[in-house]
Amino acid sequence: MAGMTEEDCKVIVAKDLEDLIPVFMKNRHKELDALRVALAAADFEQLRQLGHRMKGVGNSYGFTHVSTLGKHIEDGARSGDKASLQAVISEYHDYLSKVQIAYE
Amino acid sequence: MRILLIDDDEDLRNLLSRYIRGQWSDAQIDAYDPLERDVPDETFPLGQYDVVVLDYMLGRGDGLQWLKILKQRPECPKILFLTGAGNEIIAVRAMKAGADDYQRKQELTREKLITSIRELTATQVERTVSPDLASRLEGHDLGAKIRIPGIKVLHLIGEGGTARVYLASREDDDEPLVVKILRQEIVLNKKALERFMEEYAMVERIQSRHVARIFGHGTSDNNVYLVMEFFEGGDLSKRLAGQPMPPRDALKFFRELMFALGDIHEKGILHRDLKPQNLMFRKDGTLAIVDFGIAKNIAAADRTGAGEVLGTPRYMSPEQVQGRALDLRTDIYSAGVLLFQMLTGEHLFDGQTAMEVAMHHLNTQPRLLPDHLEVYQRLLDKLVEKDREARFRNADEVIGFLSRKLEQAAGDAAPDRTQKLH
Questions:
Q1: Is residue A75 within 8 Å of A57, Cβ to Cβ?
Q2: Is ipTM > 0.85 here?
Q3: How many CB pairs below 8 Å do chains A and B form together?
Q4: Mean pLDDT for each consecutive 10-residue tract of chain A (104 residues)?
Q5: Which CATH class is domain B2-121?
Q6: B236-413 is classed in which CATH architecture?
Q7: Would residue A1 count as lying in a domain?
Q8: Which residues of A lie closer than 8 Å to B, measured between beta carbons?
């Protein structure tokens, strides 16, 4: 994937947040499903809101790339660019399948 | 302590709860999901909480509206409002609507959250015991007292050695601004006060896209203030975060810095304190230089005492370290040190003490750039020449070099051809 590096897929999370990560990841997968549904329905407002949420929550947990993708989704939804949104959502799927989490 | 968290995102509620419990293990934290419940009505026991953390984007509600409703209740506790980064106009509106503090959500760290809650809940005893807390609370109180025509001072956002920095807004249109209020101990120091006022006088004379805009200055209740533009993009230090930039970005920002230096030097002004914290970014990504606190008019009588060294050691020119008379080549050297840092993510010179770093500028040859940045070596060499006679003479020469030599040599790695905008 052109926009994603190996480094993007390595995430370091504070040790005391470890027990929160299963819920966090489950919500990311639910989010991916919601993004796909919204894109199929061309619901750009929903896509914008989902992107905005990703942008807010990603960095907070140390998942910088989630925030980056969230910003792209927010921008793509604002301009109604379906092709770009499709590509970002595919990248999000790819990212969630590859992400490696270390606890320190 | 009892805290109410109002946010539509389960993960953020979990995270904030964890941060708070990590600090106050017996804190009682209630999560409130606005996707499931409407704004708390009059039966909701709002007064039982010490702090409410309220998000701006509530899914199906508007946090600003909720803020206004909650603040109408006399028992409403302190409210910490969460805004999106780069959206300071929302912060301005929240503070005007009665929020007691705000934080940019994407940048909200454990430390920032705890500091904010601690300040909001500080008792008189804590104010007395902790000098840092007392100083910040004094800063908040001062901001509330300042009266500036047409400007509302909203919130303390930073404290420096010479001034406190506040988020403010223009009353006409809520445009976010920055107000700097000089510390009283500086006001009493005639030399420092002259420098601060000179900062205003000089910067207002400069009409440049790449220099911070100053909107006014004056005194209020014996406090000296300066009103300037707000930079939503933060500073270069934050942008770098210890990492190198892509060379194309580094050269783009360096070129903008050269435009800024060209403009200030043309007015006979040296900056003398270029450093990452003094290079700010606007929302559109353009760069501007700020903080002329130690800037000096080239033609003015030198008010720096004999042997007194001003500036930040990491970015000082050799002649600055020596306390010699300065000319505009001192800023060219400091810009070169900044370019090295942007390209490599590292400091040109390191040391255990400020003096050790300063002496490196005087005596140590800079290390070479890594191989993949070799194309920039000639440029850098001519920027950080220890002998200023061998250095670029001015910003125009540097810009000429960038255009004529570097872009040809770099090919695909050529810097962005940013045009002068003013």
A1: no
A2: yes
A3: 44
A4: 74 92 96 97 93 88 92 92 95 95 92
A5: alpha beta
A6: Orthogonal Bundle (1.10)
A7: no
A8: 16-17, 20, 23-24, 27, 49, 52-53, 55-57, 59-61, 67
